[in-house]
Amino acid sequence: MVYGQESNSFDVIVVGGGPGGSTTASFLADKYNKRVLLLEKETFPRDKTCGDAISGKSMSVLADLGIQDKIEKVKHLKSYGVILSSPKGTILDIPFKSDDPDRHNYGYVCPRLNFDNIVFQHAKSRKNVTTIEKFSVSEVLKEGEQVVGVKGKNLVTGKEQEFRAKLVVGSDGATSVVARSLNLEKIEDKHWVISCRAYYDGITGMKPAIEIHFIKSVMPGYFWIFPTSTTEANVGIGMLASDMKKNKVNLEKAMYAAIENEPLFKERFKNAKIVSPVKGWNLPLGSKIRTCAGNGFLLVGDAACLIDPFSGEGIGNAMYSGRLAAQVIHEAFEKNDFTINHLKTYQNTLHKELDYELKTSYYLQRLGTVQFFLNWVIAKAARSQSVRDTLSGMLANTKAKGGLVNPLFYLKLLFA
Ligand SMILES: Cc1cc2nc3c(=O)[nH]c(=O)nc-3n(C[C@H](O)[C@H](O)[C@H](O)COP(=O)(O)OP(=O)(O)OC[C@H]3O[C@@H](n4cnc5c(N)ncnc54)[C@H](O)[C@@H]3O)c2cc1C
Fold it and tell me: What is the CATH number of the domain that holds 338?
């Protein structure tokens, strides 16, 4: 639809065209035949500060959208495992395995510039989706307790505009304007990670695997190398906001210092060149999922605080929550109930489906702050094939991952 000719009334308004919002819009339009307005303050393709690791969960939603093959056509590298190193410098190589024939034994590293554009353009091309890029939402509109639309500014024309709908989906990321304008709870520092990243070319010794390094200088926190090609990688560092503030860490400086001084990286980065600006951004962790449903609204992805507290992975849950939001919205139309009475189903299902995984990851995040513990587990696993096999199985399966917080696993490790 040509800008300027659009109606200002829709079934659903989706604020933010990242993986969460674009997934929501596509499912609403295609599967549930809803008229959707997708508002996005940037123009796609746009960069998003991220590690670019795309997990099996993201791929399964992409497959549901019918666009999983598109990732093969843009810049990417397949990752067949994870390489971990302990604060002492012990290296552990764990291949991904999959017992499920429908799931691959690999993930992708795909720059978000490309990945997000695939998901966004798919949503934009849906017949029932009207998209306005360069539109920044500033607040939600309410009638009494019910959200009935949004207000914002077209950044091209400078014009203020209002749009109305039965439901508003806030998929506007970590600093969600929708959540803020609804006065939803603020996120405590212990539930945020702050990270920065840059792309480096010319790194040596990379394998087709993501690397997570628990190095002393950034404990508690980690340093990552996620290869996007055989020589180029997304390199970054992240820490809990509370630890960063307490220890007065400058993340950018800490990243450069790790690259220059850590014995594990010094040689590998000797001839590497930084090929992008260093960018920082926030990760709202699912160690505390925020209120994400109310009268006339739902939140998905980072706006709802759904990032894995251990790995920092959030794209999968953003897309997963977008798909679930579309289903609950469809049922809301069937019942003609756009209040919390029905929409609480969304929040309850999210908790039911994700709580176990997010809580397990939160325990691991807490255990991971203990250097002695990491040194011990990684050293044991590096020496024992059977422990590596167990860990590999645990990484492949959410339920089995729970074994990592079971004291029995560590008791067995004593004898491994
Ligand atoms: C440094 C870093 C590394 C990470 N590494 C990984 C990783 O390797 N793998 C992984 O799975 N996850 C990773 N994450 C987390 C991941 O980036 C997020 O979980 C994911 O982007 C969430 O998707 P989303 O659609 O909810 O939000 P976003 O991707 O943030 O999309 C939100 C969209 O809303 C738009 N928007 C914002 N405000 C407005 C407004 N007022 N009006 C209109 N539009 C608006 C934005 O422009 C944006 O396009 C990382 C995060 C960081 C910060």
Answer: 3.50.50.60
Dihedral over Cα of 394, 399, 403, 404: its sign:
positive
Residues 6+ apart with CB under 8 A from 221: 193, 237, 238, 239, 240, 243, 244
Count: domains in the chain: 1
In the chain the first and final C-alpha atoms are separated, in Å, by 63
Coil, helix or strand for 374? helix
Given this model, what pLDDT does residue 362 score?
Answer: 85
Ligand 1, closest atom to CA 174? 30
174 alpha carbon to ligand 1 midpoint, in Å? Answer: 7
Residue 315, domain extent: 9-70+113-186+285-363
Query: Which residues, including other chains, have CB under 8 Å from residue 203's CB and lie 6 or more apart?
Result: 225, 227, 231, 232, 233, 235, 268, 269, 272
Tokens encoding 61: 């939603």
* Ligand 1 pocket, residue 195 CB under 6 Å: yes
Q: How far is CA 235 from the centre of its chain?
A: 16
Each as own residue / partner, the long-range contacts of residues 392-396 (CB below 8 Å, 24 or more positions apart, any chain) are 392/81, 392/94, 392/95, 392/96, 392/97, 393/97, 393/99, 395/82, 395/94, 395/96, 396/96, 396/97, 396/98, 396/99, 396/103, 396/105
One-letter amino acid at 305 equals C
In a domain, 168, yes or no: yes
Cβ 259 vs Cβ 156: under 8 Å: no
Tell me the pLDDT tens digit for each residue of 55-67.
Answer: 889 999 999 999 9
Residue 55 Cα: closest atom of ligand 1:
11
What's the predicted TM-score (pTM) here? 0.93
Ligand 1 centre and the CA of 284: distance in Å?
10
Nearest Cα residue to atom 29 of ligand 1: 18
CA-nearest residue, atom 49 of ligand 1: 18
Whether 92 is in a domain gets the answer no
pLDDT score at 404: 66
Dist CA 388 CA 345 (whole Å): 39
Whether 26 has a pLDDT exceeding 60, the answer reads yes
Cβ of 390 less than 6 Å from ligand 1 = no
206 lines ligand 1 (CB under 6 A): no
Q: Is 133 among the domain residues?
A: yes
Query: What atom in ligand 1 is closest to the CA of residue 171?
Result: 26
